Each structure stands twice: as structure tokens, then as C-alpha cells.
Amino acid sequence: MNKETGSAGFTSRLWKLFASVRLTVVILLSLAVTSIIGTIIPQNERPEAYLNEYGEFLYKILSAFDVFDMYHSWWFQFLLLMLTTNIVVCSINRFSALWKMLSVKNPSFNVSKFRNLSDKEEFIDIRSPEDLKRIYMPIVSRSFGYKRIEETDNGFCIFAEKGRWTRIGVYVIHLSVILLLIGGLIGSIFGFKGFVNIPEGKTINSIRLSNTGKAQDLNFDIRCDNFNIKFYDSGAPSEYRSTLTILEQGKSVLTRDIIVNDPLRYKGINIFQSSYGELPPREITLNFKNRITGMSHKKKVSFGQQFNLPEDAGQFVVKGYRDSYNFGGHNLGKTFMGILTHNNGSPVHVIMPVRFPVFDRMRKGNQVVSVVDYDHRYYTGLQVTRDPGVLIVYSGFVIMIIGCFITFFMSHQRLCVEISKSGKKSKVMVAGTANKNRFGMQSRIKRIAKSLRINL
Amino acid sequence: MNSSNLLSIVTFIYGTAAFLYIVSWVFKKQLPGRIATWIAIIAVVGNTGGIALRWIESYRLGIGHAPLSNMYESLVFFAWTIGVIYLVVEQTYKNRIIGAFATPLAFMAIAYASLSPNINDRIQPLIPALKSNWLIAHVITCFIGYAAFAIAFGVSLIYLFKQRKTGDKKSSKTGLFIHFPDAGILDELTHQMVTLGFLFLTIGIITGAVWANSAWGSYWSWDPKETWSLITWFVYATLLHARMMRGWEGKKIAYLSIIGFMAVMFTYFGVNLLPGLHSYGQG
Ligand code: HEM
């Protein structure tokens, strides 16, 4: 052997390093430990928030290591790259040996190895080895795919095996890990994720990206025809539903409802129900109670349009609307604002919380104004994503589950039934090995021995 | 009787079973152990009944859904999976000492659900994000995985006790540790439970990812709960690979299995203390 020097020595040492399971353990543990950081330090907040929390000095150090977006940082990506290389090199390294083992036509069996096993079963049968051969073969065939018979000095041996192919299980798992990483990479390069709010009846053709805040054009238009919320009796929301229409060059091509957990997919773009909000109403039904005459009048009015009060008491206009209104430290909820002008007076501001119809009494005016009803107008909040890697990721998911199943619950089992003449009778030995689950194999051998014995 | 009452009673049955398993182990008596097995079976049957009853009750309330939607229900299901898997292990390995370590975990899970003031046992309607079959698959598979890891944790504790004691020769023949199963069996059992757990955790993470993708359009967003389940997955993947390296048998594997279970517990309870999205697990 010549001493390894120079670049050849270096590459082979590097190869060995990446072929080792020791490195796998180091990388997996590093991934586990470093991943903790991003769960303790909130990710992707605004810089000011971090400056506040950690101070200038610590902030600079942490942001130099991309800690505030650590799962996309160079060093985390580097760990993932190491993992990938590790898996690829390790698989290449072992594959030729595996291939040889899988492709061999007549696997070699070694009787003495089976004889040396500690948990083998032995018994005596009164019939001759020749009789037993005829009886045993079909029984063995029942559960083992491959079998052959070898003559020995004073009898014969049945060798059988099954599940040789299950040894590829771990390669299947490792392949699936690679698929997940590739799929994730494709998604992060060619995909996007954004959001858009669409008022009922309106149409949009671009969205805002979540990470950069930039606009992203879609190649089609989305119109929100309708938005609807359903509530349980308890008041908790039970369903958010948007009716969306997709338009191509102004022509509608598709109309569908989406709800949470049931998105719309169109041309590789996924549209998810994610939030909603209320728009200022256009039509409001107000109630005017005249404190002097005691009369009540309901009136349906338009937002922002001045009109005459009942009984000719003056003019009124609804000027404002807020989702929440703070009054003396209390949130009064949805609230309208209006301006009341008496025929001979100056304008007065009127506050009309929807939930508190008597609120306006506090003003002590002649008219008490309250909101009876108004048209609910919503905008729907949609998450819009494109991820061309998702198919690869999903196939990785399926392959990973299959691989785990093969690896954990199936095994390569070998069986040896040796039958030797002992006087007029036969001596039978049943022994077997498996590359997984020793104890399972033990009981399997016991069962096989039993089923052979029963056929007396 | 409603399901909450039934499950409170089941809590005490689990407690009794755990107590008897421990008595049987400490005093080296067979009889309490045999009784413990029957009581554990009754507890699991009662637990099953409680879950079924709760399911029916939710339909009577007109908000029918599988009872897997909040902390209370998941803890009850967690106790159930630990109970079932433990009983299967007991039947397979014919050893009740593991029960002294496994049934207390089932008891603690369901006791925490029934008795903690922070945990609401009312049946609530599902919010829109939770209406998904993927979510049901996600919860079931995750908790089967967690239960398998819980038992691996118990077995690893036994293994470490045993190793400590066989260090000094005298006490290995006496004391509490004499009836412990053979170290080889414990090691094998840990491995089996970890592989079972790993398979189900894998499926759990995957179904969770698919659900996230159908609910809000990204299968992975590194929120703390997701990340912690991945951390757990990394720890157990480390364990599976460490077994292949020489010198990493037995004790070190047992430590890794304990660390893994800590990660499971943190994923389950601790994450709610961290900032993040996954708050639907609360309630
Ligand atoms: C996230 C990444 C990985 C996962 C999820 C994973 C998963 C697995 C699983 C489940 C097993 C089967 C263990 C058992 O039989 O108990 C296994 C075996 C193995 N893994 Fe990995 N693995 C990963 C990365 C790696 C890497 C980077 C290497 C590179 C050296 C590697 C090398 C091996 C080897 C050599 C085996 C044993 C194969 C045999 O039994 O012949 N794994 N892996």
C-alpha cells in the first residue's frame, strides 16, 4: 500500500468522512440543536422589534448570523447540504455491495452458521429423510419465495429465504429525504407566497408577497362575488366561504366557492381562504326617537348622503364608520358617526355604537339616534401561493412512509431445515436468521418447527 | 353519566393499575401484578367508552366531530394509546415490570386532562381551520407515535436502573432490579418502540404538513410546534443511526431515547409557552 498523499489522499479522506454514519449522527444532532434557536427567538419580525428586545450590540451579532431568519440562513442551508452529501455518498458507497447481494441468482447458505445459532429447534421424526423431503417442501414454499435443496452426507438441507429486496428499504427512506430537500428548494426558488384582500364585487390581478411586500402579478383576474360567514349558536365562527370567479382577459372562466381547508387551484396557483374583514356599509337603517313628541321613526339612508330628519327637525348625515370605537377605556365595537344639524342650530357630532342603541341618550339632544341595521359588506382575505415543488415533496412523503414501513416491519429472512438420518428415523433441525427483529424471528422459527412437526 | 365523569373514573382506574404494578414490582409479588393487568384492561375499555361517548355527545349537541380537537381530548387519547400499546407489549414480552413505568404515564396524561384547572373539558364546536380529515389523521398518528416513545422512555429508564445496579455486583442479585428483563431484551424493546414511534411520528408530521398545505397553502412554515416535532424527529433519527456505530449500544441509546421523549413532551406542552401560530392546540 502506498501512502496517500496530495489531492488524491484528501479526496478519499473526504469521501470516507461523508460515507460515515458518525457524520450523520453529528449532522442530525446539530440540526436538532440549532433548530431550537428559531423557536425561542421569534423569526422574521421587524428590525425595530429586535433592537428593542436585544439592544444594538446583541442585535448586530445575531443578525450577522441570520438568527432572525435562521432557517434560511447560509449556515442552516449548509447543514442541509452536508446532510444531502452525506446521504448521497453513503448510498453510493454501499450500493454496489447491496446490488451484488440483490442480483445474485443462487444465494450462498452456510449450514454450519445455522447449526451454531443458539435458538434453533431440533426434534426427531420417525419417517425417513426422503419422506420428509416430500412433505416439508410444500410447507416451506408456503411462506418462502426462494428455496433449494442440497444433499448432505447423511440427509439433505432445505434452504429458503424471502424478503431479500427489503434491504433496499433504507435507500428508499434516504431517497425520500433527498426528494423533500429538492422539492423544498424548487419551491423556494420558483414559488411565491402572498396575500390579497378583495372586497365583494371587486376584481384584482395582483397580490402582495409575504416576505418582501412587493406586488406580484397574476396572469388572470380574481373576482370576489360574495363572502359569507356562518356562526355557531355560541357565536364562534363555523364557516368562512368566498365565491370566487376567475377571469381571463375579462371573460369569466370558472366560478367556485372556497372555504378553509378547501382551496381553489388554478394554473398552478393556489387560492386559500385565510381571513376577512368588514367594509364600511353603504346602506344603514337608523332609528330616530324624538324625546319631545315621543315618536320613533325608522329610516333607511345612504352612507355619506345628507337627508332631512323626520318631522322636519333638521338634517342628518352618516359620515364615518369604525370596526371598533374606544369610549372611556371601553371598546364599543362597530360604531357609526354622524352629524346632526337642527334647523336653527350648529352641527353636532353623534356617536352610534351598533351594540348600544341607547348610547346617544347621553348627548341629551332632542333626537336619540341609533343604528337598527346596515348592509354587511365584507372583503375576503386570500392567501395566494405557487409552489412547483409540492409534487416532489408529496411524492417524497409517500416514498418515505413506504420506506419506513419496509425498513421497520419487513426483513430479509433465511431459513435452514436440516434433515439427517439417525438410524431408521430422521433428525430435524430448524434454524433461521433475519436482518431485523431477532425476537420475531425466534418465534417464527418456533412456529415453523411446530407446523413441520404436526404433519406426522 | 357524561363522558367527562366517565373519564374521571377511568383516571382513578389507571391510577389503581399503576399503583398495583408498582407494588408488584417493589414487593416482588405476582398477584398484584396479575390484578393490575385486569385493572389496566378495564381502564382501557373505560377509556375507549369515554372517547366513544364523547363522540356521541358531540353529535347530540349538533356539532359532531371526532373527539380529537383540543388539549383535553388529545390527552385522553394519549392515555388510551399508551394503555393499548403497553398491554400489547405486556402480552408479547410477558413482563409486568414495564407496567410500573408505562401505566403511570397513562395515568398522568389522563389525570392532567381531568384534574388540571387550565384544561377545559367542554365539547366545543370546530373552528373552520380544524375541519379537515387530515387533521384527524394527523392527531391520531402523532399520538400513536408519542405513546410508543413514552413506552420506549419507560423501558430506557428501566435499562439505566439496571445498568447502574449491575455495576456493583451484590445488589444485582437482590433488590428491586432482579426481576428486570434481560438487558438485551430491554434494548431490543426500546428499539422496537422507537421504530414504531418513528414511523408514526413521520406519518404524523407528513399528515400535518398536508393539512397545513390544504388550509393555508404552505406545507412547512417553521412555526415552533412544527419545528419542535422536526427536532424530535431528528433526535430519534440520530438514535436509529447511532445504533449502527460501535460503542453506541445500550446506555447511550437509552439516554437518547430519554432526550427524545423530553423533546416529545416539549413539542406537546412546552411549545405553547413559546411565541407562535399553533395555538389551536390549546383550550
Ligand atoms: C434525515 C435524514 C435521515 C433519515 C430520516 C434516515 C433514516 C434512516 C432510517 C429510518 C434507517 C433505518 C434504521 C433502522 O434500521 O433501524 C436508516 C439507516 C441507515 N442510514 Fe439513514 N437516515 C437519514 C440520513 C442518513 C445519512 C445522511 C446517512 C449517511 C451516511 C445515513 C446512513 C444510513 C445507513 C448506513 C443506514 C443503515 C443501512 C443498513 O442497515 O444497512 N442516513 N436511516
TrEMBL record, chain A:
Domain ResB-like: 21-444
Topology in membrane: Multi-pass membrane protein
Keyword Membrane assigned: yes
Protein name: Cytochrome c biogenesis protein ResB
InterPro entries assigned to the protein according to its UniProt record, in alphabetical order: Cyt_c_bgen_Ccs1/CcsB/ResB (IPR023494), ResB-like_domain (IPR007816)
Segments crossing the lipid bilayer: 21-41, 74-95, 168-192, 391-411
Gene Ontology CC terms: membrane
Subcellular location: Membrane
Keyword check for Metal-binding: no
Keywords attached to this entry: Cytochrome c-type biogenesis, Membrane, Transmembrane, Transmembrane helix
Organism of provenance: Candidatus Desulfaltia bathyphila
Example GO BP: cytochrome complex assembly
Main localization (coarse): membrane
Positions in coiled-coil regions: none
Automatic annotation (TrEMBL), chain B:
InterPro entries recorded: Cyt_c_assembly (IPR002541), Cyt_c_biogenesis_CcmC (IPR003557), Cyt_c_biogenesis_CcsA (IPR017562), Cyt_c_biogenesis_CcsA/CcmC (IPR045062)
GO BP of this protein: cytochrome complex assembly
Keywords recorded for this protein, A-Z: Cytochrome c-type biogenesis, Membrane, Thylakoid, Transmembrane, Transmembrane helix
Nucleotide-binding keyword on record: no
Keyword Membrane assigned: yes
Lipid bilayer topology: Multi-pass membrane protein
Annotated Cytochrome c assembly protein domain residues: 68-278
GO molecular function, one term: heme transmembrane transporter activity
GO cellular component: plasma membrane
UniProt cross-references to Pfam families, sorted A to Z: Cytochrom_C_asm (PF01578)
Subcellular location: Membrane
Ranges annotated as spanning the membrane: 6-23, 35-56, 71-89, 96-115, 135-161, 196-216, 228-246, 253-271
Family: Belongs to the CcmC/CycZ/HelC family.
NCBIfam families per the UniProt record, alphabetical: cytochr_II_ccsB (TIGR03144)
Function: Required for the export of heme to the periplasm for the biogenesis of c-type cytochromes.
Protein name listed in UniProt: Heme exporter protein C
